[in-house]
Amino acid sequence: MSVIELEGVVKRYRSGEETIEALKGVDFHADRGEMVTVIGPSGSGKSTMLNMIGLLDTPTEGTVRLDGRDVTDFTEDELTEERRSTIGFVFQAFHLLPMLTATENVELPSMWDTKHDRRDRAVDLLERVGLGDRLGHTPSQLSGGQKQRVAIARALINEPEILLADEPTGNLDQDTGRTILEELTRLKEEENIAIVAVTHDEQFVEYTDRVVRLVDGVVQS
Ligand SMILES: Nc1ncnc2c1ncn2[C@@H]1O[C@H](COP(=O)(O)OP(=O)(O)OP(=O)(O)O)[C@@H](O)[C@H]1O
Ligand SMILES: [Mg+2]
């Protein structure tokens, strides 16, 4: 069973008189242990699609299933809980808190969890992405690639089933982007997660298990 599935997903945005159909009936799925990349030009609906997969927004029409469960049946509390426990997010702009160390940034999404001490996992994840010697550094003391590694470790702290990445190499040079893609493919195997990345960067094709091309809100077959 796919961890995440979209079926006939339509998303319309209304701004004033105008209606924009950002997704026009998208079918999509991702399984554990695979990395799927959604590639498409600016405005093709990539972020909109990722927001549906990440339960950050709901479709106008169609169905989103998480582990086979229709998420339209979920309450707001259940959606919040799933976002926290099942899904990890990585963004183009890293979104690290500047006052916190690398370790504290990674631990942050687990702070609500009083049952487990997540410090050990935070340190372990940072070591696994090659930042064992940067644990106490704050974001301003890290390079772009190092910041993105911290963000990836943070996305994995709660042992998600799915890692979602919106342009994860968008702020990095090509070589650094390549090492981030290598990290992602390695972690995908180690953690047995589904990775869904959206990008316009063709470099992803080489690292990904499957490519989905999105043009003007439609998946190309
Ligand atoms: N909140 C919104 N309200 C109205 N229109 C929106 C909204 N969000 C996105 N859109 C429109 O929906 C379409 C798809 O936008 P989306 O952000 O998903 O594209 P994208 O593929 O992620 O582009 P980029 O590569 O530039 O990030 C665009 O035409 C955009 O203007
Ligand atoms: Mg986008």
SSE inventory with pairings:
Layout: E1 4-15, E2 18-30, E3 35-39, H1 46-53, E4 61-66, E5 69-70, H2 76-85, E6 87-91, H3 102-107, H4 119-128, H5 144-156, E7 162-166, H6 174-191, E8 194-199, E9 210-215, E10 218-220
Parallel strand pairs: 3-8, 3-9, 6-7, 7-8
Antiparallel strand pairs: 1-2, 1-4, 4-5, 9-10
Helix pairs in contact: 5-6
The structure holds adenosine-5'-triphosphate (ATP) and magnesium ion.
N-C termini distance: 22 Å
In CATH terms, the superfamily is: P-loop containing nucleotide triphosphate hydrolases
How many domains would you count in the coordinates? 1
How is the CATH topology named? Rossmann fold
Mean pLDDT: 94
Percentage of helical residues? 25-40%
Unreliable stretches (pLDDT < 50, length at least 5) are none
Order of helices and strands: EEEHEEHEHHHEHEEE
What percentage of the residues does DSSP assign to strands (E)? 25-35%
Question: What is the gyration radius calculated from CA atoms?
Answer: 17 Å
Number of helices: 6
How is this structure best described in words?
The protein has 221 residues and is α/β, with parallel strands linked by helices. The protein has one domain: Rossmann fold, CATH 3.40.50. It contains 6 helices and 10 strands, in the order E-E-E-H-E-E-H-E-H-H-H-E-H-E-E-E. The strands form 2 sheets. A 6-stranded mixed sheet has the order 6-7-8-3-9-10, with helices on both faces. Strands 2-1-4-5 form a 4-stranded antiparallel sheet, with helices on one face. Helix 5 (144-156) packs parallel to helix 6 (174-191). The longest helix has 18 residues, at 174-191. The relative contact order is 0.22. The mean pLDDT is 94. The structure holds adenosine-5'-triphosphate and magnesium ion. Residues 46-47 line the site of magnesium ion (MG).
